[in-house]
Amino acid sequence: MGIKPVYYSFHDGRLVFASEIKALLEDPQQRRAVDEEAFFHYLSFLATPSPMTLFEGIRKVPNATWLRISEDGTVEEQRYWDALADAEDLTGATEDEIAARVLDELRTSVRYRKISDVPMGVFLSGGIDSSAAAALFSEGEGSAVKTFSIGYDEEYESYANETHFASSWPRRSAASTMRSFCPRKT
User: Fold this and answer.
1) Measuring CA to CA, which residue among 2, 6, 4 is closest to residue 18?
2) Does the pTM of the predicted model rise above 0.85?
3) How is the chain split among helix, strand and coil, in percent rounded to 5?
4) Tens digit of pLDDT at every position of the chain (186 positions)
5) How far, in Å, CA of 107 to CA of 32, rounded?
6) Beta strands in the chain (DSSP E)
7) Phi, psi (degrees; rounded to nearest 5) at 167
């Protein structure tokens, strides 16, 4: 399915692509404008669905998909894999068997994402999912895993600030944490 995203833009008769948007923005002819629909999705769901990005004219290749881009900029897109097509029926499995299987799959996923040529860390919100990812990431590490957390310095009714959970995590594991606080919610 792929680990790293591929971003692309077709403009001025050229196709440009990279694994990071900032590389595409090095092109002085690349338009710099907000994609308003993608921004709406980001504000609603804290994510922009593929192929959208927050930049108008810059697209992301969806997971498990290949593209063919013709000279005139026409894009043909084809999915080559679907996660649900390989789903296994676990109806007869015990809860312990399912839990062991899920943990094994999570470990495999984290191990694949630990492959990097630069130092890596884990974003730690303090919630269950990021805490589990940080715990699995720290397995087999010889040194402390760097974790990063961002939160507000006050409590808000509309925002569940979980940074107190994140700050307790390094005491329970081999991790070091950098926290950053936004001065106020806007």
Assistant:
1) 6
2) no
3) 30, 25, 45
4) 556 789 999 988 889 999 999 999 999 999 999 999 999 999 988 889 999 999 999 999 998 899 998 888 788 999 998 888 888 888 999 999 999 999 999 999 888 888 877 878 888 877 788 888 888 888 887 777 788 877 777 777 776 777 777 666 554 454 454 444 445 554
5) 38
6) 7-11, 14-18, 59-60, 65-69, 75-79, 121-123, 145-152, 175-182
7) -70, -20
Nearest to 2 by CA among 79, 69, 100: 79
Whether the Cβ atoms of residue 65 and residue 77 lie closer than 8 Å to each other: yes
The count of other CB atoms within 10 Å of the CB of residue 142 is 5
Encoding tokens for residue 31?
């338009």
